[in-house]
Amino acid sequence: MARGEALFRQGDRLAALYQVRSGQFKSGHSDPGGRYQVTAFPTVGEWLGLDGIGTDRHCFDVVALESAVVVPWCYDQWMHRLNGDATLQHDFHQTMSREIVRNQALLLLLGTLTAEGRVAAFVLDLSDRLCGSGQPGLSLVLRMTRNEIGSYLGLTLETVSRTLSKLQSEGLLGIDCRRLQVLDAPALRRMAHRAA
Amino acid sequence: MARGEALFRQGDRLAALYQVRSGQFKSGHSDPGGRYQVTAFPTVGEWLGLDGIGTDRHCFDVVALESAVVVPWCYDQWMHRLNGDATLQHDFHQTMSREIVRNQALLLLLGTLTAEGRVAAFVLDLSDRLCGSGQPGLSLVLRMTRNEIGSYLGLTLETVSRTLSKLQSEGLLGIDCRRLQVLDAPALRRMAHRAA
DNA sequence: CGGGGATTTGAGCGCATTCAAACGCAGTGG
DNA sequence: CCACTGCGTTTGAATGCGCTCAAATCCCCG
To answer: What pTM was computed for the model?
Structure first.
């Protein structure tokens, strides 16, 4: 699918679950007041659409941030397969459970960290998921805007920009607009784990 | 189980899933830095222990805030039952999915609302879950401390206290230490949906 | 090469936090 | 019965972090 294209939209009926083969996505939600918040940046290996099982309708949008490939699994067929395969069923439950845990980690982040800690955690998380366990100096491309990052972290786009600049001036990471490299993962990790 | 007793603790091996029959609980997580954050206040009807499926170990503590009753389901037996019953399996998936969605709603809350909006949302959520759809004037008992509420909402205990006092002085709710009643649900709802 | 969105940077402000003190209440022991 | 202690709550004052408003610059893309 192409950059900017939606895999599904909030309110769509649940048709299939998807597994990401390549590409970065954003998953978001707009509330009654009309504002929009990014709730995740899914990427390779993750499942999309799990939010729709609860009510048969999707609660979030999922949009591709670059050209991407996903494998669709028709929901009914998938359930039928699970029902005959205890191992696959267990794997699937583990996936959903981990999704719950992942969100709770994010809650902790939003509830306790300063802007610096949030951005550090975001950078580490993204580099882990895109490059495997943070090899220092490895460069990656941020497909999302500062605004989207801010929405995800509960910050304004200006604060995100300022914080990235600050972390760069301290030598913890290199950043050239969308291109980013982690230089001092341990220091970032310390920020991400420290209290507000 | 008695007030203050733990159903399970972070790191415990997953033995069973539990359904709450009565009582209020808190679910929390302590991070490497040693700080503790409340991530939910489960109550009647909710499932406990779903976080443990992903890794076979629980990622959170669950502690009773008052004497409570839960129904345990041995995990292996439960999985076996699911495997032969497509309807039950679907119900269970819906439960897990809703858990995911619930957390994302909380993310939105922490990411976008002011202290006032957060407290309003908390009060409404709690009264909905304890009393059914907010009947005005109905009084309920907060089993958790201001500190626990603040931890859950990403605020300090002082801010929670101040905000509750303010909402009371505006006539939106009545509060006498642990006893609380919703007086103007629509106004609270507006606060909880308004932007920061 | 021009246009528009994204990004960076600055200045001032406001909300929530931090620090601090006083009060209420339950449990305990003299 | 009352002082004493500990914990939870309330309230006040001052600080500071992140937001708002604003302007300049960069970069992608047509």
So the answer is: 0.95
